[in-house]
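Journal club side-thread
Mid-discussion, someone asked how the predicted structure for our own chain would compare to the paper's figures. Pasting it here so we can look after the session.
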Amino acid sequence: MTEEKKGFRLDWATLKLAVILFAFAAVVAIALGMVNKITSDRIAAFAAEKTAAAMREVLPAESYTPVEGSAAGKIELVKEIYAAGDKGWVVMVAPSGFGGELDMAVGVDKAGAVTGVSIVSMSETSGLGANANRESFRSQYVGRSGSVALRKQGGEIDALTGATVTSTAVTRGVNAALAAASELIRGA
């Protein structure tokens, strides 16, 4: 009886296929890298313009200056704080919703009241959580101060139907912005 060797056997057809697959993957990786390099500046400029538009929407001002040494990074959810001239602050927050982080701009005046809420970017479910971008929902926060809560939690904000997680996230973001502005008001 002849004994057959068992184990891995490399033949030229397999090696040729592996080399072709590697070459194809390398070409695609290089192409993706080039596309990313070409478009990254344009994407960054678009994101910056969208953020600037959100800031103008929530608290119009002549200029916005980053507030150094502020609550940004110290208060959960607060990413950046900008002084909106002498009108108040725009607080950039990022609460977690159902579909991931919601990047929001919240305007707060010198008296500590919300002047506006704008959602810069989100990945919420279309037709449900994405409705957080509707003016009818966001306008409920305008004029509120202190701490806000959804109606089902004893507050005055009506949650979005079928999107309680997103509604809670927006409310948490507004509360973080109010807390940051409150610290700035106390420190002024």
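Post-session note: Strands lie at 64-66, 78-84, 88-93, 103-109, 114-121.
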